[in-house]
Specification:
Elements (H helix, E strand, L loop, with lengths): L25 H12 L3 E6 L3 E6 L2 E9 L16 H4 L6 H13 L10 H6 L13 E9 L2 E8 L18 H5 L35 H17 L2 E5 L4 H16 L7 E6 L6 H21 L9 E4 L7 H7 L11 H18 L6 E4 L8 H10 L6 E2 L6 E4 L7 H10 L11 H10 L3 E2 L2 H6 L1 H7 L6 E2 L11 H9 L1 H17 L10 E4 L2 E4 L6 H13 L6 H14 L9 H4 L1 H5 L1 H6 L23
Parallel strand pairs: 6-7, 6-9, 7-8, 9-11, 12-13
Antiparallel strand pairs: 1-2, 2-3, 3-5, 4-5, 10-11, 14-15
Length: about 600
């Protein structure tokens, strides 16, 4: 067996625990009284509802659901294992006594869901039980007003989980009254404040006509762009703004054939695009390419309208199921860089040389949102061009920056596109009508700058793009489109609900420790194998696509990260590959070894030996 040592490292945490829950009720007050009477040392509360305690040599985390019901699908199937079989040794006496007190006084019985700890525990001997991230999870359903998950961390570690650091005084007197409290000023609630921007006030009304001067201003801008640059790249997201931009540019080069060789179009497919939008973009790629090939003097090759995709090891599924990334939130938009920024930049670097003067044309508008307005002002101000961050010789321009949503809608309806007979603008307008209130997530800003992309995915409005987007609190466009396309989008809607729920650490989906260069530090941590197994189970049940290469990448990542850290990888997790592609099992027959060869863990404050 391979032997090694992983250390716990004390680091400065940005997590600020507070003295109490966001609120208490009668049942939670009784729960806390029982914890205090059992001798638990209190370390504070994070994210409103998660409190950390120490009992003897063990850390205990309690995730509260007060006056709300947890999402059943994220709890996992109940096993026939009784908690007493796990805590039968004398060293666990204090824990066993606590659970007995909780069941007796709260008049409920806890349940033990499927989890890797049980998988490892049921083997004759398994060193995975020593993993610093291993925890034993028990669910309590007390009443309609209180459910909670109790987690026990077993290893003799020297730092507590979830970012707390030192014991604090029990807020017992405040709990006794079971009154509701306001959140503390120290509590970092930013991760939940997704709707930081008021809903956009723009309306996609269709007017009789657009101000001719406005159109002329944009046409003059486009003319200048084609005259002053060797190549012009239209950033096309499939939405209304980029569609207007594409049509204006095509109309210009049709009227001025000498510029046709300069036109290029780039779009992006994240792998989790709304299927309706994905189909729309693919259709546009086909009809536009065919039409321009007919109309342009020297034709228009298919490689001039490209749809970029993330690298196989950077896809959404590879990052969530393989790396254990928590689904993107307002403060952790890891998706932007991996799914759009990098693929777009790679394409630009590969397609155009350093010696060429290239302009990427963006369909961004100041009126779309306050974030978009600030971004445009920051990059362009009164300048015609913006400097692209990727390299010199590459710049940007926003020819329709002064248009309103009504201008955009009116243009698309009143002005037939050159490919109108094959696929008219009304198809896009119908999608917007069904989605109502949907905003466009522009590919241009995303490829140009990650910060702008993050802003582009902020706000309370639904986004025109990824069905799996968990950055917004509620995806209004997906919700509305489900009514029109229940069979096509119903499974995506259900899966997004679970992905959004996983952002909540109360489901035990986070390991409780942050992986830190061979050691472990205080923090929320990454997604556990247990929650990833649950998500994959529903991904399969909802018949969502997962390609063979994505399955391979997931397995490679788990093999490279979780197994060396001593985590038991359940047969329930490995089994997912057989359901997506049986051939993968044969291709990766040596990936999983039942021997569970792994490393032994001890606690400490020093760096591990190389």
């Amino acid at each position: 067996m391979e032997q090694d040592t992983y250390k716990f490292k004390e680091t400065v945490s940005k997590i600020k625990p507070v003295p109490n829950l966001h609120k208490h009720n009668q049942h939670s007050a009784e729960l806390w009284r029982l914890l205090k009477d059992a001798g638990c040392v209190y370390f504070g509360t994070v994210r409103k509802w998660t409190s950390v305690f120490q009992l003897s040599n063990f850390y205990v985390a309690v995730h509260h659901f007060i006056d709300e019901a947890p999402i059943d699908e994220l709890i996992g199937k109940e096993t026939n294992v009784h908690w007493s079989t796990v805590l039968s040794e004398p060293e666990y006496h204090s824990l066993a006594k606590l659970i007995e007190e909780l069941e007796g006084n709260l008049q409920t019985q806890c349940s033990v869901p499927e989890q890797t700890f049980i998988d490892a525990f049921q083997r004759p001997y398994n060193v995975h039980l020593q993993s610093p991230k291993h925890k034993f999870m028990l669910w309590f359903r007390v009443s309609s007003n209180l459910s909670f998950l109790l987690e026990v961390f077993f290893t003799n570690q020297q730092i507590p989980p979830y970012g707390v650091n030192t014991p604090i005084e029990w807020p017992y007197n405040r709990v006794q009254h079971a009154s509701e409290y306001e959140s503390q000023s120290l509590f970092e609630i930013t991760e939940y404040l997704v709707d930081v921007e008021p809903p956009p006030k723009e309306a996609m009304t269709i007017q009789d006509a657009i101000d001719p001067q406005l159109i002329e201003l944009s046409r003059e801008a486009i003319k200048r762009i084609f005259k002053e640059n060797e190549k012009v790249v239209i950033a096309y997201s499939g939405g209304k703004d980029s569609s207007v931009l594409l049509q204006l540019c095509v109309e210009f080069v049709l009227a001025n054939p000498m510029y046709q060789e300069k036109l290029y179009i780039i779009s992006a497919s994240t792998g989790v695009e709304n299927p309706i939008i994905e189909q729309h973009i693919r259709t546009m790629q086909s009809v536009v390419t065919n039409k321009l090939n007919q109309l342009f003097i020297n034709g228009f090759s298919s490689d001039r309208f490209t749809i970029v995709e993330p690298q196989s090891d950077q896809t959404y599924t590879a990052c969530v199921f393989g790396d254990g990334f928590i689904p993107p939130s307002a403060t952790f938009k890891w998706c932007v860089e991996r799914l759009k920024v990098n693929p777009g930049q790679d394409d630009l670097l590969e397609r155009f040389s350093d010696n060429e003067l290239v302009c990427q044309v963006l369909g961004v508008r100041s009126a779309e949102s306050s974030n978009r307005s600030k971004s445009i002002e920051h990059h362009f101000s009164n300048n015609f061009y913006g400097v692209h961050v990727l390299r010199g010789g590459l710049r940007t321009a926003p020819p329709i920056r002064h248009w309103t949503a009504a201008d955009v809608a009116t243009y698309l309806v009143r002005t037939p596109a050159p490919w109108n007979e094959e696929y008219s603008n009304h198809n896009l307008i119908n999608i917007y009508g069904l989605a109502s209130g949907m905003m466009e997530c522009p590919i241009g800003a995303i490829i140009q700058n990650e910060n702008d992309a993050v802003k582009g995915c902020s706000g309370s409005s639904a986004r025109f793009g990824c069905w799996a987007c968990t950055v917004v609190k509620e995806d209004k466009s997906l919700t509305n489109l489900v009514e029109a396309y229940p069979e096509e989008l119903g499974p995506h809607y259900k899966m997004r609900r679970l992905l959004k729920g996983v952002q909540d650490i109360r489901y035990g989906g986070c390991t409780g420790y942050y992986r830190n260069r061979g050691g472990f530090s205080t923090g929320y941590g990454d997604l556990t194998i247990d929650i990833r197994t649950i998500l994959l189970t529903f991904w399969r049940e909802y018949n969502l696509p997962l390609s063979q290469i994505e399955v391979v990448e997931i397995i490679k990542k788990v093999k490279a990260r979780e197994i060396p850290e001593g985590l038991a990888i359940s047969h329930r997790f490995w089994g997912f590959r057989q359901h997506f592609n049986e051939n993968i099992r044969l291709a990766l027959a040596d990936t999983y070894s039942p021997s569970f060869s792994c490393k032994t863990y001890t606690s400490g404050k020093t760096e591990p030996n190389d």
